[in-house]
């Protein structure tokens, strides 16, 4: 079947009905509108989740991308202007209702393609509820498919937010929106305990914990964006798209 678009929002209901005769997978990108330091756009997580989903869907040709959920759980960033947050309960409910609607039309494999770590607990709760009610397969990807890239190329051990990773990936997909003259290492006040996890790279033994970004960082950046490069970002996207395409194809044949 030749699709004009893999973005559900650009299709007609007839196109979706036709697509569902052959494939049952849909991605729901989930993002945030939250501060990303003095140098990255507020919508980074939402834009990236949608961008990655579309690239992968176009390559895989066996999944559609639903309109993104542009707001997320960003309570910890509210000290910085422009941040808009949902409560975890609201995000859970929106994700749950979107998921249930999609299953009613026949999508029985749903992947929440999540661009923001703060959304994960709410999405996991929604996934449990969708599964219990509809028996659909529901999964969540929060930068989970490229741990080997992070291990190999990200030098900052506490890289968590608007730092080396996210600045690199934004240089690679929206360079014109990176305010390069403001890329700087923040003054960080990291927690004293070696058991508190922060960042993409830290494996256990660690506990998760709730924090306010402003208590940790003067600029909102948690990490070191001066270590970012467009090359690292391009490598990250290439691998992320490859892995996601592979996952979508596996879902399609499941
Ligand atoms: Zn982000």
Strand content: 5-15%
What is the alpha-carbon Rg in Å? 18 Å
| Side-by-side strand order of the widest sheet | 2-1-3-4
How many extended strands? 4
Distance between the termini: 20 Å
Indicate the structural class: alpha/beta
- The CATH superfamily is identified as Creatininase
The top-level CATH class is Alpha Beta
Number of domains: 1
pLDDT < 50 stretches:
none
User: Average pLDDT across residues?
Assistant: 95
Percent range of helical residues: 40-55%
Task: Explain what you see.
- The chain is α/β, with parallel strands linked by helices and 254 residues long.
- The protein has a single domain (8-253), classed as Creatininase (Rossmann fold), CATH 3.40.50.10310.
- It contains eight helices and four strands; from the N terminus they run αβαβαβαβαααα.
- The protein has a four-stranded parallel sheet with strand order 2-1-3-4, with helices on both faces.
- Strand 3, helix 4 (120-134) and strand 4 (137-141) form a beta-alpha-beta unit.
- Helix 2 packs across helix 8.
- The chain is globular.
- Bound molecules: zinc ion.
- Residues 36, 44-45, 116, 166 line the site of zinc ion.
């Amino acid at each position: 079947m030749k699709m004009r678009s893999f973005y559900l929002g650009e299709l007609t209901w007839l196109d979706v009905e036709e697509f569902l005769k052959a494939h049952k997978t849909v991605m729901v990108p989930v993002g945030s509108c939250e501060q990303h330091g003095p140098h990255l756009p507020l919508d980074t997580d939402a834009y990236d989740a949608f961008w990655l989903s579309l690239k992968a869907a176009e390559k895989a040709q066996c999944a559609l991308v639903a309109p993104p959920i542009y707001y997320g759980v960003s309570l910890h960033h509210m000290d910085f202007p422009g941040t808009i947050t949902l409560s975890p309960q609201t995000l859970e409910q929106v994700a749950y209702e979107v998921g249930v609607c999609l299953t009613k039309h026949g999508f029985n494999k749903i992947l929440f393609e999540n661009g923001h770590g703060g959304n994960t607990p709410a999405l996991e709760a929604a996934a449990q509820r969708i599964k219990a009610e509809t028996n659909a397969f529901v999964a969540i990807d929060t930068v989970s498919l490229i741990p080997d890239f992070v291990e190999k190329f990200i030098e900052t051990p506490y890289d968590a937010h608007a730092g080396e990773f996210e600045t690199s990936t934004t240089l690679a997909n929206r360079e014109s929106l990176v305010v390069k003259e403001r890329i700087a290492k923040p003054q960080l006040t990291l927690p004293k305990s070696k058991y508190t996890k922060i960042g993409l790279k830290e494996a256990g033994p660690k506990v998760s914990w709730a924090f306010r970004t402003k208590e940790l960082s003067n600029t909102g950046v948690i990490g070191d964006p001066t270590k970012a490069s467009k090359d690292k970002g391009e490598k990250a996207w290439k691998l992320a798209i490859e892995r996601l395409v592979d996952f979508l194809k596996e879902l399609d044949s499941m």
